[in-house]
Amino acid sequence: MSNALPPRIQETIAGWLRDGEIDVFIGYEAGSVPLRATPVFIRAPEDVGRLIWDATCENNLAAFLSLHRGKRVGIMAKGCDARAIVALMQEGQWTRETLRIVGVACPGVVDPRQVAGALGVAVDELEDVGLDGEQIAGGGRLLPCGDMLYDTCTSCSQHTPAIHDALMGTCDGEDAPLDDAHVRAMEALDADARWDVFSAEMSRCNLCFACRNACPMCYCNQCFVDHTAPRWVNETVEPHDVQFFQIMRTFHLAGRCVGCGACTRACPQGVNLRLFLDKLRLDVAELFGYEAGVDPEAKPPLATYREDDPNDFVIG
Ligand code: SF4
Ligand code: SF4
Ligand code: SF4
After folding, report:
1. Could you tell me the residue ranges of all domains in the chain?
2. Whose CA is nearest to atom 3 of ligand 3?
3. Is residue 107 within a helix (H) or strand (E), and if so which, with residue range?
4. What is the pTM of this model?
5. 129 and 119 in contact (C-beta within 8 Å)?
6. What residues line ligand 3, using a CB cutoff of 6 Å?
7. Could you say which of 58, 174, 236, 299 has the lowest number of CB atoms within 10 Å?
8. What is the C-alpha to C-alpha distance for residues 313 and 311, in angstroms, rounded to an integer?
């Protein structure tokens, strides 16, 4: 089955480029690593044939928007990617007028680690593995794609993007409510046990910053971790440096994380960042009734003021 974009979508993108409505289109093309498509930046109408869509298109392409400030940009967006685009617009980073969005109804993207586990090899030993329609072919076996999806996809709250100028793809999956079972399990632990969970996860982190780089909401021109004067964080793998970075990053994303899972997918060490980010997403939803990227008209809690705010945290 071809994973090229449908002709009508190719023509739409080529038309945007031809007519000067966009300077660049950010999409996916076939990658060199098994089960991973790679981002591509299309600037000429004749190159739209390079674009693909399938269950290996895992990057949240909204992370590349900050590299194109001041341009008019076209972009492919799954449901979770579109939440990031909405959140970026809510934070004044982009306007709808400067974006053209090809939305994709997305059944989910494949987790290469799960495939490797099912085939009994390490993820960097995956060879001659690829999609075959709705299945993954490799090691003489056929695995259903639907059994090999990332956690974020099996509990996806928005398969079809809320905003788009053109829509493609099909998805029968039902949108799930905000997933909380993994967060509630951690909340049920006492403080020492919660710290043990956090410390154990972060003990695998080697401060490669792939999570930050994959995150559409980590768009600061200079990340606090890269400041040298003053120096906020030493970039060592000592537990206190790693934990400080992760705590700072997680709280910096409170009320801003859209739960796309791109950071967790990007982590080469398999750190479960999602657990801690989702804790704050749930807290913000419960305390402020706000989910980042869901309602384009909603005001982020950190950018608004409510006279009836309980202010429980303020020490009088
Ligand atoms: S979270 Fe939803 S929209 Fe995002 S990749 Fe998974 S299934 Fe697709
Ligand atoms: S912190 Fe992770 S889950 Fe949240 S928006 Fe960034 S990449 Fe997505
Ligand atoms: S991607 Fe993983 S290993 Fe790299 S900094 Fe983030 S949590 Fe640490």
Report:
1. 7-109+149-303, 110-148
2. 205
3. none
4. 0.93
5. yes
6. 205-211, 266-267, 269, 271, 273
7. 174
8. 5
